[in-house]
Amino acid sequence: MKKIRLIQQIHEAGVVAVLRGDSPEEVVRMADAAIAGGIRIIEITMTVPFALEAISALAKKYQSDRPEADDYAVIGSGTVLDPETARATLLAGAEFVVAPSFNRDTILLCNRYRAPIMPGCMTIQDITSALELGVDVVKLFPGNLFSPSIIPTIKGPLPQANLMPTGGVSLANLKEWIAAGAFAVGIGSDLTKEAVQKNDFSIVTAKAQAYVEAFRQAKQR
């Protein structure tokens, strides 16, 4: 049941913050700022040095089973390339796993532990293979290679596919992606780049608020 709950939480929250940085301390600051702005689904990428430290710290700080609380957030791992890394992140406290590509063994590992796994896919073949292995949400990646119209195009032959575009999603096109049928969207550098350059993480909070509001308005249409 926990896996079902987590997938539903990701869908309802709609916006996933994909956080990269130069240190675990930096991405924890990013995560705190994003959560303060209303983004509740946080993906810490394994390109961050000592990323497991950030995942563990955030998993201890925030609770995923109390959506009404101020300390509510779901912490997951991203840029997971293999099952060994996936298991390490789950042991560190990650509650979902995101990969940039389709890796059968990683999917099977996450299924074994009943953890949501979102593999990156570009083709109908990749998506079909992911569905056959029981994947609930497919990461459409890189999203900037497509327009929102790709979602109904894919859902023509695969209406059961839940698609999360990541890469290239912005405030300018978020509404289009949601209107096209995106399950959720992943937001990366647009959320954090300016804040890092200026060393002002209040910018992350402000942008998070803007993304959450844009998602809310898109869902009301």
UniProtKB/TrEMBL annotation:
<comment type="subunit">
    <text>Homotrimer.</text>
</comment>
<dbReference type="GO" id="GO:0008675">
    <property type="term" value="F:2-dehydro-3-deoxy-phosphogluconate aldolase activity"/>
</dbReference>
<dbReference type="InterPro" id="IPR000887">
    <property type="entry name" value="Aldlse_KDPG_KHG"/>
</dbReference>
<comment type="similarity">
    <text>Belongs to the KHG/KDPG aldolase family.</text>
</comment>
<comment type="pathway">
    <text>Carbohydrate acid metabolism.</text>
</comment>
<keyword id="KW-0119">Carbohydrate metabolism</keyword>
<dbReference type="GO" id="GO:0008700">
    <property type="term" value="F:(R,S)-4-hydroxy-2-oxoglutarate aldolase activity"/>
</dbReference>
<dbReference type="InterPro" id="IPR013785">
    <property type="entry name" value="Aldolase_TIM"/>
</dbReference>
<keyword id="KW-0456">Lyase</keyword>
<protein>
    <submittedName>
        <fullName>Bifunctional 2-keto-4-hydroxyglutarate aldolase/2-keto-3-deoxy-6-phosphogluconate aldolase</fullName>
        <ecNumber>4.1.2.14</ecNumber>
        <ecNumber>4.1.3.16</ecNumber>
    </submittedName>
</protein>
<dbReference type="Pfam" id="PF01081">
    <property type="entry name" value="Aldolase"/>
</dbReference>
